[in-house]
Amino acid sequence: MPAKHYASNGYGKDVKTLMDDANRKKALLLLIATAILWSTGGLLIKSVNWNPLAISGMRSAIAAVLILLYMRRPRFVWSAAQIGGAVAYAATVILFVTATKLTTAANAILLQYTGPIWVAIFGKSFLGEKTTRTDWLMIGAVLAGMALFFLDKLSSGGVAGNIAAIGAGLAFGWFILFMRKQKDQSTLETPLLGNIIAAVIGIPFMFGSAPELAGWAALAALGVVQLGLSYILFAAAVKHASALDSILVPTIEPLLNPIWVFILIGERPGPWALVGGAIVLVSVTARSMLMARPGTAVPLPD
Q1: pTM for this one?
Q2: How many CB atoms neighbour CB 284 within 10 A?
Q3: Domain segments of the chain: what residues?
Q4: 178-218: per-residue pLDDT in tens?
């Protein structure tokens, strides 16, 4: 039967919808795996006794090598989206490491996750992606849960860290937006270029001191697993997920991040942080389940 006849009966459209649903479900699984890998960052960063910019630079250098080996022949098109995404990525990783060293792991990761609100605010004008009423409800629930973390006493010496974490959230939101702008292209070049930028920025801070052997082991894990492998998975997922999926699903990271730090280092989140974490987990899980249902996927721009 000719292809046009399939389309005229609506068959072709149904197949496309089913394929889109299947791709989105795979993307959600990849995003969950990415979040788990990302969540080891707080523990590993706190295990390295070194300048934050040096840690960030070395971590990104290792990750860049891994991504380059995986890609073999990256294609840098030097578009505004690719360059903008790389700069936003570099700012995200540098500010996050700085925040993690200056404040608690819970404060650093949760303040970074103000990112969804920036995606929601700029997504329509920048990408043409519609933010639904359900999206706004989920964002509100996520942000309300995060706000509860601030009812616990914040470290008086962590103001600079908190500011750096808020900056990381803004940068992360724009990184997601720039990545979605490249949905019809190869997107892994963007974090590769961003890691190169972060590595170059960190070079001047690597001299004068060096971490211990255990610190180098943590740096290797940061570069290979927590950053390199995670962004290979993320780049594959983001092509089939909306911008809000790409930033809301990985919010399970801030739940796991302080848990690893508490178990192995003893840095304890406050009671309000636990309540807020539960709200975030329920909200993100509910939205992910809704988005996994056939026919409920957020439409992506052509």
Answers
A1: 0.78
A2: 23
A3: 23-292
A4: 888 886 676 789 989 999 999 999 999 999 899 999 999 99
